[in-house]
Every structure is written in C-alpha cells, then in structure tokens.
Amino acid sequence: STSVVAYHPAMNVGPLRLPVLRAGPNHFLSYRATLPLSGAWTLNVAATTPEGGGEAVAIEMRLR
Q1: Is the entire prediction scored with pTM above 0.70?
Q2: What is the pLDDT of residue 49?
Q3: E strand or H helix at 51, and its extent?
Q4: How crowded is residue 6: how many other Cβ atoms within 10 Å of its Cβ?
Q5: 46 with 2: CB under 8 angstroms?
Q6: What are residue 30's phi and psi, to 5 degrees?
Q7: pLDDT tens-digit profile of 7-60?
Q8: What is the CA radius of gyration of the chain?
Q9: Quick one: pLDDT at residue 52?
Q10: 24: alpha, beta or left, given left = phi > 0 and alpha = psi -120 to 50?
Q11: CA proximity to 41, closest of 12, 19, 20
C-alpha cells in the first residue's frame, strides 16, 4: 500500500490525504489531488513493499 499526506506548515493546514492510483511497478499517479493554498507544502509518502518492508520520504514543494 502507498499513502500520500500533505501539510502546509506555515498555514497550519493538514494532514490532507491525497488519493493515489497504482500506475505500474513502483509508479503511482494522483489525478484528484487538490492543495487549496499557494506556498510551501510538505508531502509525506509512505509505501509498504510486498515483502513487508517499508519506505518513507518527505518531499517539499512550492505552489504559486
């Protein structure tokens, strides 16, 4: 399973759960992700592997 959660720390917004779809091995897409404010966002991505392991990463991005 894979989850994506967004936070806007400066505006104290989040967690916003973003929908993701499997697009092939190790690839995911989100067609309905809506972030309501401009500014700096942090996306926390967590994935569980078929073997039962896990990976997590935080991505920072800026929206205009």
Answers
A1: yes
A2: 83
A3: none
A4: 20
A5: yes
A6: -135, 115
A7: 999 999 999 999 999 998 888 999 988 899 999 999 999 998 888 899 999 999
A8: 13
A9: 86
A10: left
A11: 12
Instruction: Name which of 22, 17, 56 is nearest 33 in CA terms.
Output: 17
- The residue assigned the tokens 């592997």 is 49
Give residue 44's identity as a one-letter amino acid code. Answer: N
With beta carbons less than 8 A apart as the criterion, state whether 8 and 14 touch.
yes
CB atoms within 10 A of CB 44: 16
C-alpha dihedral sign at 52, 26, 55, 14: negative
Give the side-chain half-sphere CA count within 13 A for 46: 8
* pLDDT classification of 6: cutoffs 50, 70, 90: very high
